[in-house]
Amino acid sequence: MVGQARRVNKTELGAALRALRQASGKEATAWRLYRRLGFHRKQEQIRALEQSMTLLRLFQPSLVPGLLQTPEYVRAALQRKGLGEEQLSRTIGARIERQRVLYDTDKTLRFIMTEPVLRWRILPAAMLAGQMDRIVSVSRLPNVDIRVVPLDAAQTDAPGHSFVIRDDRMVTVETTHAEMVVTDPRDVALYVEKFDRFSSVALSGSDMRAMLGRIRDELLREQETG
To answer: For 56, how many CA atoms within 13 A lie in the half-sphere containing its CB?
Structure first.
């Protein structure tokens, strides 16, 4: 009888947790499941979402956003996932293919990075300098807004983690073990507010490009003297 009661309680608890997740408008998928299906399929799924949206807002305190990455940066970022060479190549190709959305003027794409993102040594100095050039080039597109939060800016918030807001209906958050999708309008609004706070203290336009130029020059000088 005791064992039966425990089974019933576990069943009821599982049902209650599923109902709670559904009611909260949150869904998490472990990265190991994407690994099993193939990370290139995940890139294709993201591409479909990007094709259907009109406004993207992306905050990144860790790595250069995928849509702005050079092929060398894409490879370096994905290698940490331990993919085989075939899956790695297919995933790199799928991510590069996604970047075509940058040139769709029917869409508005807004990116905010923190300054450490630009200095994170995921690549040799010369290749990072090329990544700076790529960001500057994309920032000149009429439908793209790229901003950088400098380390010396006074802050009222903390970075926490990266997130992507698609229109005003969905937020994607990447954690160490899983990807979380948030759809509850109240929670989506919290991320929009956080994005706007960082946007207000970030460098944009010519100021942002000047900052990237300085970082690029530092990297090239380092390469020459290294």
So the answer is: 29
Inside any domain, residue 3:
no
The string of pLDDT tens digits covering residues 99-127 is 999 999 999 999 999 999 999 999 999 99
- What is the rounded distance in angstroms from the CA atom of residue 211 to the CA atom of residue 151? 12
CA distance 60 to 194: 12
pTM tops 0.90: no
The answer to the question of residue 25 being in a domain is no
| Domains: count for the chain | 1
DSSP line for 171-223: EEEE-SSEEEEE--HHHHHHHHHHHHHHHHHSB-HHHHHHHHHHHHHHHHHHH
Could you read off the pLDDT of 33-84 as tens digits, one per residue?
777 777 788 888 888 889 999 999 999 999 999 999 999 999 999 887 777 8
